[in-house]
Design goal:
single chain; 139 residues; alpha+beta; Arc Repressor Mutant, subunit A; 3-stranded antiparallel beta sheet; 7 helices; globular
């Protein structure tokens, strides 16, 4: 079956990502959505983020983002700390436990990416990423 609708293919690719990633992330008691919050923090220079930064980067709603942060707090992966630039606000930060695992967690995400794109050449992966960025207006 050759599907010619971009929307259907993007959705199918997202479902394939979930199918590949959820069992891998489950070994760490994480979902793919929870993992992306951790990865954002692991790759952030300050290892912190405002909730609104997470919302914008991943195009998530405020309630969804807060729910993910609360779940990760309960599991001991993140904590909320006072924002040094705005005492009224909070930042989401990695816990010491998660910070010590950051290289392992980043490698985990890279393994999922490799598994998802294993049928593609290096050039095809680059083209796919470029086209998806263009589709989403991220270029």
């Amino acid at each position: 079956m050759n599907i010619k609708k971009a929307g259907v293919l993007v959705k199918k690719a997202a479902l394939e990502f979930d199918k590949i990633s959820n069992p891998i992330f489950a070994e760490y008691d994480l979902t793919a959505s929870q993992y992306k919050v951790i990865k954002f923090l692991c790759t952030s220079e300050s290892k912190t983020a405002r909730v609104v930064d997470l919302e914008k980067y991943y195009s998530m709603t405020h309630p969804t983002t807060l729910g993910l942060v609360e779940q990760l707090e309960k599991k001991g992966f993140v904590k909320r700390v006072v924002n040094p630039n705005d005492a009224r606000g909070k930042l989401v930060a990695l816990t010491a436990k998660t910070d010590s695992m950051k290289d392992e967690l980043i490698a985990l995400g890279n393994a999922v990416e490799e598994k998802l794109t294993e049928r593609l050449t290096v050039d095809e992966k680059e083209k796919l990423v470029g086209l998806l960025n263009k589709l989403l207006g991220i270029e």
